[in-house]
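stage 2 :: seqdesign
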């Protein structure tokens, strides 16, 4: 097999929306849109605050509502800050966002992805999976949805 077919073999087909999990953040399941038009993944976050942990490392704490159209469920998370980047959304608006790296569980497979933190309260999906996170892992079929079911915990 050549390298191209090796990469093809490793990929699984996902629908345009899928249930995913971010276990290190305590997010058992969240509905995510597979967004091939977005380079970077993002997740809904509010009460975002940078801080230094006991070892002097820069971390960020934030809260999120993991379920669409529901604000009663709140998950509070903490993660090391990987970067701060200027991100331009599809409407042309730019903002500086914290970037974290955490494992994504999707389709029975787990791999690390970078995620930016932004307020997505008014957006239909609380999480977008960008194409960088999909590389060599997922192929998207826009006719499909929820190929892998809801993660079980």
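stage 2 :: out
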């Amino acid at each position: 097999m050549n390298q191209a077919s090796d990469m093809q073999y490793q990929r699984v087909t996902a629908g345009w929306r899928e249930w995913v999990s971010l276990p290190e953040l305590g997010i058992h399941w969240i509905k995510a849109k597979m967004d091939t038009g977005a380079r970077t993944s993002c997740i809904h976050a509010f009460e975002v605050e940078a801080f230094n942990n006991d070892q002097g490392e820069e971390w960020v704490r934030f809260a999120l509502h993991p379920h669409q159209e529901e604000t009663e469920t709140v998950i509070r998370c903490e993660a090391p800050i990987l970067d701060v980047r200027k991100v331009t959304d599809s409407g042309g608006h730019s903002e500086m966002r914290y970037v974290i790296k955490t494992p994504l569980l999707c389709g029975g497979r787990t791999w690390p992805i970078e995620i930016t933190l932004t307020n997505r309260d008014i957006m239909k999906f609380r999480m977008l999976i960008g194409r960088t996170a999909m590389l060599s892992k997922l192929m998207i079929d826009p006719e499909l949805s929820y190929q892998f079911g809801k993660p079980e915990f």
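stage 3 :: structure notes
- The radius of gyration is 16 Å.
- The first strand starts at residue 12 and ends at 15.
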